[in-house]
Amino acid sequence: ISAQLGHHIIAKALAEAQAWPPALADLRLSVNVTAADLAADRFEESLIEQIGASGFSASRLTVEVTEGDLIDDLARASAMLAVLRKRGLRIAIDDFGTGYSSLAYLKALPLDYMKLDRSLIVDLDGSARDQVVVHAVIDMARSLGLAVIAEGVETGSQLDMLARAGCNIFQGFLAAPPLSAAQLVAFAETRRSRAAAAA
Q1: For the ranges 46-55, 77-86, 101-110, which has the lowest average pLDDT?
Q2: Which residues contact 140 (CB under 8 A, 6 or more apart)?
Q3: Which residues is 170 bridged to in the sheet?
Q4: Confidence (pLDDT) at 100
């Protein structure tokens, strides 16, 4: 049932993203993939078929593997994800720092992004220990050639510390709360106008 639900959610997300207006043409779509999805027969083939049927560009799609889920067969999962990468998709490890298989996943899976879990960020501007851990994780990710995305960034000081540590991208309430499609269009147009005015 979990794999069927995931298939339905991905299909719906692809359909909505394909209908995005031109103002969102440079945005990527990310979809979560669980260990159950990766264990399903023909998962990678099914996803490729879904992408083709939707008309959404595979080069704008990121598959996020939830780090907290235990993947039983890392070699098989790696092979499936490698097929998706060859088709132009990007692969991210999501919620990094919440599970027990983090380093094994970094070693085995063909990744493009590491997403730092909010739990690593929340005390960043108040805890020297948290700062050391985050710096070390970012250094490791960059050494592996991964872009780093910080989740749950809420303050300017957190953002400054992450930028100094080499974090590439962030998400969280500092940027925006969850947005509807219409709100996202307005947000993107406002940001584009501000950037043009500042240039």
Answers
A1: 101-110
A2: 106
A3: 150
A4: 61
At 2, the pLDDT band (50, 70, 90 cuts) reads low
For residue 126, list its beta bridge partners. none
**Cα distance between the two ends of the chain:** 51
Residues in Cβ contact with 175 at an 8 Å cutoff, skipping those fewer than 6 apart: 153
pTM: 0.91
